UniProtKB/TrEMBL annotation:
Keywords of this entry: Transferase
Keyword Transferase (UniProt): yes
GO molecular function (one): transferase activity
PANTHER family in alphabetical order: L-CARNITINE COA-TRANSFERASE (PTHR48228:SF6), SUCCINYL-COA--D-CITRAMALATE COA-TRANSFERASE (PTHR48228)
Family: Belongs to the CoA-transferase III family.
Protein name in UniProt: Succinyl-CoA:(R)-citramalate CoA-transferase
The UniProt record lists the keyword Transferase: yes
Domain of life: Bacteria
Family matches, as InterPro entries: CoA-transferase_III (IPR050509), CoA-Trfase_fam_III (IPR003673), CoA-Trfase_III_dom3_sf (IPR044855), CoA-Trfase_III_dom_1_sf (IPR023606)
Amino acid sequence: MTGPLTGLRVLELGSLIAGPYAGRILADFGAEVIKIEDPRRPDPLRDWGAARHRGHALWWSVQSRNKKLITLDLRSGEGRDLLLRLAESSDVLLENFRPGTLERWGLAPETLWERNRGLVIARVSGFGQSGRNRHRPGYASVAEAIGGLRHLAGFPDRPPPRPGVSLGDSLAAMIAVQGIMMALYWRDTRSGTGQIVDVSLVEACFSLLEGIVPEHAATGAVRGPTGTALPGLAPSNLYRTADDRWVVIAANQDTVFARLADRMDRPDLTEDPHFATHTARGAHQAQIDAIVQDWVATLDADTALGLLDSAAVPAGLVYTVADIFADPLFTERRMLLPVQDPDLGEIVMPGVVPALTETPGAVRWPGPLAAGSHNAEVLGTLAGLDPDALQRLAERKVL
């Protein structure tokens, strides 16, 4: 085990995306993450994803990488007792059940803290552990809608689109990791005790609303979807090239716009009162976007990007995943990692972020395909179960 979190032990309960993604981040940086699945109902993510390789969903291999997998029926008394024994030597318990689930199983925070007062308990849910909606189920799509993100996406005359990935879950996972690290710092430097990290998918989405909240509170303004541009920022939009590619050009800052105008052989634009300043370009957004579009339409994508890069104008093509694989940037930055899987052969995974210079994270192994792959190792070592005890528990479906 390597990484800055080496020595940290995390019990990961729950399934699908938000909680397990938070566990994946911790595992990437060296934490010993023990993922606990129900022996009768393993994580549904095992079957999720748009494509299969050798009959298996590859998302599972990514989401469960670097983790140890055990099975435990937490609804049973024996399973509950084993979980409490594991909690005694753990630093973090991470779950993403509907609020009240742990309590029904006799695993409330107070019970866990009786065994280990230093345990940090991270709880990820749709609406948080308190409030009138705490018991409602919540998926990323619902959180993105209620949290205000969906209303801002797309075009005014069309239904708000989804982003194509489970954005709400991923945001909540990253916020959960932030909260876990803050709680551990407080425990290790100040209090010696754990606390609850309460993460709501809705609030994770809501937290990205930037100036929209104070603007509404002060003026009543309700910002809506604006398509490919933001009002007042120009030129900063999508433009179609001669070979039918979309390029993003972000040149709304005065100095950057001057460089773009020069590269377009239109230095006169910087003297035109309609376009000379950031504010003026924002007021005449449609006109300046049309001028830039006319220029881009004469160039193929490679030529356009070459000219823009040479002038230090921020720009980039809208990439498909195939474009990502073709761009050396992603291999140079180790963002496309080939990993050997004993059952699936070589699979390519997203790299580890962020990049740390002294204690980098790593992908040490892919998520095992078999539920309970580490039962003997984890429960034998941490719970003191011998092979006969493990066999008896497995026969009763506790494991």
